[in-house]
């Protein structure tokens, strides 16, 4: 496994940690209600964790071949056309990911510079829950760039387990 693929896997694991934290928050909130109390800002933290989980899962899903693709169209093309279509799709994806990462960077920096805080029960500096979104998009840009290079070289980007994992 290459160092970059380890980074994508780490991103996937972090995504899973945020999903588990949502479950823990929900269970804690249920228990707290039974005891006549509440977990302050549980809904807010769960929402932040959901966003973090989604963005951090993007590079891992790309590496595992789990993003939606129109395989039927690719199969109709000759091998050269298939590769050209794959390069074009990856270029478009890289452009979108880079655009998203750029604006996420501006968004997080603006929140940091203006010392923006959440309006919920706990005044949380907004750049903190926005940071996983930025990290996920930056890692996705790296993954898309690696995929573009490997596709141009005629090599496979997706992990070998991706075919068996997505065979249903």
UniProtKB/TrEMBL annotation:
Localization of this protein: Cell inner membrane
Record keywords, A-Z: Cell inner membrane, Cell membrane, Membrane, Transmembrane, Transmembrane helix, Transport
InterPro entries according to UniProt: DctQ (IPR055348), TRAP_DctQ (IPR007387)
Molecular function terms from GO: transmembrane transporter activity
Transmembrane segments: 12-33, 45-63, 84-109, 129-150
Membrane topology per record: Multi-pass membrane protein
GO annotation, cellular component aspect: plasma membrane
Record GO biological process: C4-dicarboxylate transport
Domain (Tripartite ATP-independent periplasmic transporters DctQ component): residue spans on this chain: 22-149
Major localization class: membrane
Description of how the protein assembles with itself and partners: The complex comprises the extracytoplasmic solute receptor protein and the two transmembrane proteins.
Alphabetized PANTHER family for the sequence: 2,3-DIKETO-L-GULONATE TRAP TRANSPORTER SMALL PERMEASE PROTEIN YIAM, TRAP TRANSPORTER SMALL PERMEASE PROTEIN
Family: Belongs to the TRAP transporter small permease family.
Function text: Part of the tripartite ATP-independent periplasmic (TRAP) transport system.
Descriptive protein name: TRAP transporter small permease protein
Organism listed in the record: Ectopseudomonas oleovorans
């Amino acid at each position: 496994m290459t160092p970059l693929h380890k980074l994508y896997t780490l991103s996937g694991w972090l995504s899973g940690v945020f999903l588990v934290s949502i479950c823990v928050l929900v269970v804690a909130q249920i228990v707290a209600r039974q005891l006549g109390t509440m977990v302050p800002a549980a809904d807010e933290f769960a929402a932040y964790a959901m966003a973090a989980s989604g963005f951090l899962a993007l590079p891992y899903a790309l590496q595992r071949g789990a993003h939606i693709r129109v395989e039927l169209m690719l199969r109709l093309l000759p091998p050269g056309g298939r590769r050209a279509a794959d390069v074009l799709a990856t270029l478009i994806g890289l452009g979108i990911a880079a655009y998203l990462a750029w604006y996420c960077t501006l968004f997080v920096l603006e929140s940091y510079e203006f010392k923006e805080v959440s309006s919920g029960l706990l005044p949380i500096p907004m750049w903190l829950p926005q940071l996983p979104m930025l990290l996920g998009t930056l890692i996705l840009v790296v993954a898309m760039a690696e995929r573009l290079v490997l596709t141009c070289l005629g090599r496979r980007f997706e992990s070998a387990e991706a075919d068996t994992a997505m065979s249903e």
